[in-house]
Design brief:
Blueprint: E1 3-8, H1 12-26, E2 31-32, E3 41-46, H2 51-70, E4 75-79, H3 80-93, E5 99-101, H4 109-119, E6 123-125, E7 146-150, E8 152-153, H5 164-168, E9 172-173, H6 176-188, E10 193-197, H7 214-222, E11 229-233, H8 242-250, E12 257-259, H9 267-273, H10 279-292, E13 297-304, H11 311-324, E14 328-333, H12 341-346, H13 355-381, E15 385-394, E16 397-404, E17 410-414, E18 426-434, E19 438-443, H14 447-458
Parallel strand pairs: 1-2, 1-3, 3-4, 4-5, 5-6, 7-10, 10-11, 12-13, 13-14, 17-19
Antiparallel strand pairs: 8-9, 15-16, 15-18, 16-17, 18-19
The protein binds S-adenosyl-L-homocysteine, iron/sulfur cluster (SF4) and FE3-S4 cluster (F3S).
């Protein structure tokens, strides 16, 4: 059987897409491999959110070209967001790429591959939009306890820095029935946690006529027996309603974890980014979350050096980070993207923030983010006992197991002497050590049984 290796760059959407590619390929007898030297087909699943992400794809492809010169029989495919943006152009420049397909026609991979094998002709197929009926596809996952489940594709916002709407298309929600069926299947295979996935999960169901929402979806899937935890990623503040926050607080399986990117903590910058909310609105949302769930984790993405961002406006972002008390933040220096208003502004000398200034701002913000994360961590976890879902051995220490708290924080603890504990178990751990990004604890005896009892009464 031929082997396929996929290099996945970018966000969780791409990770989930790679799992679908493996699923599709299994139908024509391709097996996943993690050994690039054993692969017959290499797929680069790309990201184009910033120039750096695109550059990574180009340099990897250069390396694959060298490999192909030594092993001319291997096939190279270009997929994902950069392929969707300019796959044709890239294939012209790098003719050793055998197949190009985009984010809208992933399901066509097996046919394109068969066509290539039959004719020996390289293939390039990109759809401008998602098909009316997005086909359900098989999935092969590399995880065993937690799984990603797509609930909505695309994004209808037009943030002025962002290329995602161009490469992922308009919002399209998946039907609640398909989502529930996928989760039931996952649970029957032993999965315990699902993360509902989309660029804009808080807009779930708004494209249906029946008034569906993320809150109604959470209720609909909540009682799948054997499912222990539900998360969702990524939300937009504009669509975070009180009803959603109340639903998360009420449903025991839904984790108190909110990744709701704020992007900037300054009203002028937010307006120019077209984020359509104010700092005040975001703060009120965060306050409401913490009022109902005092230990909830709220995390964000931030961009520094957006064209026109003054030093004072940047400092407003820092103030917001402190005020809201984020549990973690992903920060990035603004990078101009094709066909976006931001890219035009970046060419204006008066608006462009210099690269040096961007680096300075991100350094300062990262230090602050770490300080605040540590403070929040201590506040939330000191002298506590946490429910941990065991995901496996700690890759850095084989004597330890690793898992996450409900709020998504990594927690490591020593393996018990007995073998009673398994990957996928929910256990109770007493927290002994706190760092900004992880916890260390001690497994509490008999904790599995007591947790199972609690869970079965919830069910
Ligand atoms: N849909 C999500 C985020 C999608 S992209 C949301 O609305 O929040 C992931 C992150 O990449 C964004 O949150 C943003 O912080 C960052 N990003 C997007 N475009 C960027 C650009 N041009 N330059 C730098 N960072 C960018
Ligand atoms: Fe990009 Fe904005 Fe859509 Fe998020 S909401 S994907 S940042 S356009
Ligand atoms: Fe990148 Fe595409 Fe995700 S551009 S961030 S992989 S949606």
């Amino acid at each position: 059987m031929p082997n396929c290796y996929i290099e996945t760059l970018g966000c969780q959407m791409n990770k989930a897409d790679s799992e679908r590619m493996f699923g599709l390929l299994s139908e024509i007898d391709y097996k996943p491999t993690e050994d690039i030297n054993a692969a017959d087909l290499l797929i680069m699943n790309t990201c184009t959110i910033r120039e750096g992400a695109a550059d990574r794809a180009y340099s990897n492809l250069g390396r694959w070209n060298k490999l192909k010169q030594k092993k001319p029989d291997i096939r190279i495919a270009l997929a994902g967001c950069l392929a969707q943006e300019k796959g044709e152009e890239i294939q012209k420049r790098m003719p050793y790429i055998d197949i190009v397909f985009g984010t809208h026609n992933l399901h066509r991979l097996p046919d394109l591959l068969l066509e290539l094998n039959k004719t020996g002709q390289s293939q390039c197929e990109l759809y401008e939009n998602l098909p009316d009926e997005v086909p359900e596809t098989p999935i092969i996952r590399r995880t065993s306890v937690t799984a990603w489940v797509n609930i909505i594709l695309g994004c209808n916002f037009n943030c002025t820095y962002c290329i995602v709407p161009q490469v992922r298309g308009r919002e399209k929600s998946r039907t609640p029935d398909f989502i529930k069926q996928e989760i039931e299947l996952l649970v029957s295979e032993g999965y315990k946690e699902v993360t509902l996935l989309g660029q804009n999960v808080t807009a779930y169901g708004l494209d249906f006529e029946n008034g569906a929402s993320l809150a109604s979806l959470l209720r609909f899937i909540h009682d799948v027996p054997g499912l222990e935890r539900i998360r969702f990623l990524t939300g937009h503040p504009y669509h975070v309603t009180d009803e959603l926050i109340e639903t998360v607080a009420e449903l025991p399986k839904v984790c108190e974890y909110f990744h709701i990117p704020m992007q900037a903590g300054d009203d002028t910058t937010l307006r120019r980014m077209a984020r359509i909310y104010s700092v005040d609105k975001y703060v009120k949302m965060a306050d409401k979350i913490r009022e109902l769930m005092p230990k909830a984790s709220i995390t964000s993405d931030f961009i520094v050096g957006f064209p026109g961002e003054t030093h004072e406006q940047f400092l407003n972002t820092c103030k917001a980070v402190e005020r809201i008390g984020f549990d973690s933040c992903i920060t990035a220096m603004y990078s101009p993207r094709r066909n976006t208003p931001g890219a035009k502004w970046e060419e204006d000398e008066e608006l462009k923030v210099s690269e040096e200034e961007k680096r300075e701002r991100i350094g300062y913000l990262n230090a602050l983010v770490t300080e605040i994360a540590e403070k929040e961590s201590k506040k939330k976890y000191r002298d506590t006992q946490q429910e941990i879902l065991i995901e496996g051995e700690n890759p850095r220490n084989p004597k330890q197991l690793t898992g996450r708290t409900r709020q998504g924080k990594i927690c490591n603890f020593d393996k018990p002497a007995s073998n009673k504990i398994n990957v996928g178990d929910l256990v109770q751990v007493k927290i002994d050590e706190i760092t900004p990004w992880s916890l260390k604890g001690t497994l509490l005896p008999n904790s599995i049984e007591s947790v199972r009892l609690e869970v079965s009464t919830v069910n």
